[in-house]
Amino acid sequence: MVSTFVKDMNPKTKTDSIERGDEIPRDAICTCKSCHHDFFRDCVKSSCTCCAKDEHSMILDGIEGFLSIRPESYFGEANKIRNEDLIKAMKVKGSLTDSKVEEAIRKVPRHLFVPSNVIKFAYEDRPLPSQNEQTISQPSVVARMTEWLDVKKGNKVLEIGCGSGWQSAILSLLVEAGNVFSIEMSSVLVEFAKKNHAKAGIKNVEIIEGDGSLGLPEKSPFDRIIITAACPEIPKPLVEQLSMDGLLVAPIGEFRQSMVLLKKTKDGIKELKRELGYIFVPLNIKFG
Fold first, then answer.
1. Rounded to an integer, what distance in angstroms lies between the CA atom of residue 155 and that of residue 152?
2. Are residues 229 and 132 in the same domain?
3. Mind telling me the catalytic residues?
4. pLDDT 10s digits, 42-84
5. Domain-embedded: residue 41
6. H/E/C letters for each residue in 146-173?
């Protein structure tokens, strides 16, 4: 539960001056009563980034006051509005059409999965820099890949490249009682994603440090496999670990990629969909 220090429950009443020692988290989203704009805390004083007033009150979810702890699990009204705007934008683009995927995205706050220095862009449909010189995928791309994967309740899913953990968090809601396994080469990203999952309360995702191109044979076969980095071809171990009638989605290519959806059948691998125009970081591992 978020602890809130309330100076005045009446939003029309001006609060006392704010001392420098009154700390508001740097990534808190507040509403300035002077100019009525939402803004992100970005300094030790209480200055609004819009009107730059040093003495003013702020409203958080309709209550006038100040957060006294970091809002790591705080999905406030301003974030909910931004998330809905993001969802609407993706639906307009046509990259989000499935109601189950939409609801999963609605329930997973993206601001918990991005570095603090770019948190103000968390609900924009754009890729963001992550840890270890990697990139967090654009939300509309995550939505498209998730829809193509057609995850069912109880599925066992393998993700290659955990990123910030947002993709696997969305998958975890879709599989419900199923399981998601995510393999990541970078120990920095492994720790980052694990911390993000803990903040978001994700329980059914196991993140493993290792060579994703080798898959996870001890947990195979997998109903669904998603590769979140570019590869010139699908690593053979992943094809072998895909269950019969299982689906695999991946960006295939070197400099620019095509998003490809494959299905494993008794007659071999069948390509179901292909879409041009993607750019992913490369899968720099054994079979990448």
1. 6
2. yes
3. 137
4. 333 344 444 544 434 444 444 444 433 333 444 566 788 889 9
5. yes
6. HHHHCCCCCCEEEEECCCCCHHHHHHHH
